Amino acid sequence: MLTNKTVVLGITGSIAAYKAADIASKLVQEGARVKAVMTKSATEFIAPLTLRSLTSSPVATDMFELASEYSVEHIALADEADAVVIAPATANIIARLAAGIADDILSCTVLATEAPVIIAPAMHTNMFQNPVTQDNLAKLKARGFTIIEPEHGHLASGATGTGRLADAEKIMGTIKQVLGRSGDLAGKGIVVTAGGTQEAIDPVRFIGNRSSGKMGYAMAEAARDRGARVTLVTAPTALPDPAGIEVIHITSAIEMKKAVTKATAQTDALIMAAAVADYQPESKAKEKIKKEATGTGLTLGLVRTPDTLAEVKGNFIRVGFAAESENLVANAREKLEKKQVDLFVANDITATDSGFAVDTNKVTLISRDGKVEDLPLMTKREVADRVLDRVAGLLGKKAGR
Asked: Over the stretch 166-225, which tens digit does the pLDDT of each residue have?
């Protein structure tokens, strides 16, 4: 969340300027105070009234606007900003910022601010790939600016190439990552697992489960937003890769264990939110199994999969998740003792609005010291932050030993 954060949203003269309205709306929905700053050319593509309506704040377009609520507008905006985001950023604004030119309200604000600056370029492929533009971007990176790389796709010119403004969710994720750099998990490495593994029967079929990955992804994003370096090891899901997070895609339980073992070589905490299959077929058929060849039924021999949480050891905090349909606390306690983890998050999958595929969860936190905390129904992001509160506390105790 971006509650009480002030984001100066710079908009320049790109055809992608209309997308700034969606970014502004999402920032407001996340609780941010949004101050839109538009170059003169940007107003040719989108009306200031649109941004004013979405942000409920005046839109700055002129350094010398006498009716402005700011006495010296660019200085006031620069001081107020927690972050400055330019989306879309044209080749022109990138060149001017790289050269230190301050000849309009936006460039003056950037030059005057001490807040982090995030640049999301949008332009024709040839302009983006031009050595001059690349050199200017490199200069800005060297000065500490965060650059959100444009995407490959259909361009306004009708051509296809790299230059499309990054997706709004990616921009939002990057803003949260940048603003979270001083959070309580700053400098900590956290590995999170997500999704449900798929154990192949043949090249077409597999054994799986109902996990959507939403809880694990919420954990990864919450850790990122609190300053952690996050590695997300994920089984197949329908969710996009979160911005600012190293994402490792796997399919099976065996691949999960290998990826987690490698990722935790240097980490401070492992949070196993994935629904890892307990069993896999004894063998995988090389070709698709035909119905005609199996008669009236198909019998599969199953063997246990590796227990990643129990088997991957190290000098890091370990958190497990348990989806239960009965004896919630008793079963979770048994798993905690058996696997010797620091914290178990147990959720009753039979509860309304809790468990798989939904955006909320009802969980109970069970600590190694025996403490049991029954949380009310929350969004999965809220659950993630409550779990990370515990993780931060455990890391603090570990550091104080």
From this structure: 999 999 999 999 999 999 999 999 999 999 999 999 999 999 998 999 999 999 999 999
Largest CA distance in the chain: 85
Separation of alpha carbons 148 and 153, rounded Å: 16
In whole angstroms, how far apart are CA 227 and each of 243, 306, 383? 13, 31, 18
For residues 224 and 187, is the Cβ–Cβ distance under 8 A? no
CATH class of residue range 6-179: alpha beta
In the annotation, is 209 catalytic?
A: yes
CA distance 317 to 193: 14
Residue given tokens 């361009």 in the structure block = 155
C-alpha to C-alpha distances, 185 to 176, 228, 369, 384, nearest whole angstrom: 14, 5, 23, 13
- Residue among 99, 100, 135, 93 at smallest CA distance from 118: 93
Contacts of 43 (CB under 8 A, 6+ apart): 61
Domain segments of the chain as ranges: 6-179, 189-400
Tokens of 292: 């005609």
AA letter at 4: N
CATH number of 189-400: 3.40.50.10300
Cβ-proximal residues to 169 (8 Å cutoff; 6+ apart), any chain: 240, 243
CA–CA separation, 93 vs 200, rounded Å?
51
Amino acid at 319: V
Closest CA to 38 of 70, 13, 18, 56: 13
Spatial distance between the Cα atoms of 176 and 132, rounded to a whole number of angstroms:
30
* Side-chain-side CA neighbours of residue 45 (13 Å): 17
Q: Which of 92, 130, 209, 331 is catalytic?
A: 209
pLDDT tens profile 251-280? 999 999 999 999 999 999 999 999 999 999
